[in-house]
Amino acid sequence: MAPFPARISAPFLAAVFLVAVASAGASRAGEPASLRPLIRSGEKAPAFTLSDLKGKRVAYRPEGGKPSLVVFWSAFCPLCRELTPSLNDIARRYGSSVRIVSVNLDGKRFSNAVQSFVRESGVSYPVLYDDIRGDLFIASDPYGIEKTPTAVLVDAAGTVRATFVAEGVRGLSSEFERIVGGLKKGTGVKK
Q1: Which residue, among 151, 173, 166, has the nearest Cα to 79 in the 3D structure?
Q2: 134 DSSP assignment
């Protein structure tokens, strides 16, 4: 095996290093949506328009005048199934004072499984299918979603107040009460 030539390795490694540093230095706002880490508290929540279970286009605008909970999930995810009764409870207790927007990541090809789960679970809030535009998912990529379930609590002004990922959704109901209670009282509680 021939040794790697020293005169090629130094410039080559320097070029690789510079490309890596330049790539890592991109700002969050300028990053392609698919490379974004999970959205954080204090960031503006992205708006999106997706199709619901019946094919109707539904627009989500985060700054809609009331807090919202955007939930990214899969019908094949056990934790997502476990979360659904808590979401149903939140929807019943808060009614129209809070928006719950459910974004399914399974895609329309699994619509029978998704619709069956939604029907059996008694879901009363909007369920939307995430869709692909170019190489990116319209809703989940701008939010930096990598795991299901992920729930994002957004205040009435469209600012993210908290995120709950995978196992963390088990505490969603109590945290939701605390944060939404603070937002309603004007305390602006942040997690």
Answers
A1: 166
A2: T
149 Cβ neighbours under 8 A, 6+ residues apart:
71, 72, 73, 74, 77, 79, 80, 83, 164, 165, 166, 169
H/E stretch holding 103 = strand 99-104
H or E stretch including 102? strand 99-104
What is the SS3 assignment for 133?
A: strand
Between CA 47 and CA 128 the distance in angstroms is: 13
* Degrees, nearest 5: CA angle 183-47-158: 20
Q: Check which CATH number belongs to the domain holding 93 and give it.
A: 3.40.30.10
Does residue 175 fall inside a structural domain?
yes
Total number of domains in the chain: 1
In a domain, 128, yes or no: yes
Cβ(189)–Cβ(67) below 8 Å: no
Domain around 37: 33-185
Model pTM?
A: 0.76
User: Contact, 84 vs 116, CB < 8 A?
Assistant: no
Tokens, residue 92: 């019943």
> Is 22 within a domain?
no
- Tens of pLDDT along 34-91? 567 899 999 999 999 999 999 999 999 998 889 999 999 999 999 999 889 989 988 9
Instruction: Give strand pairing partners of 129.
Output: 51, 104
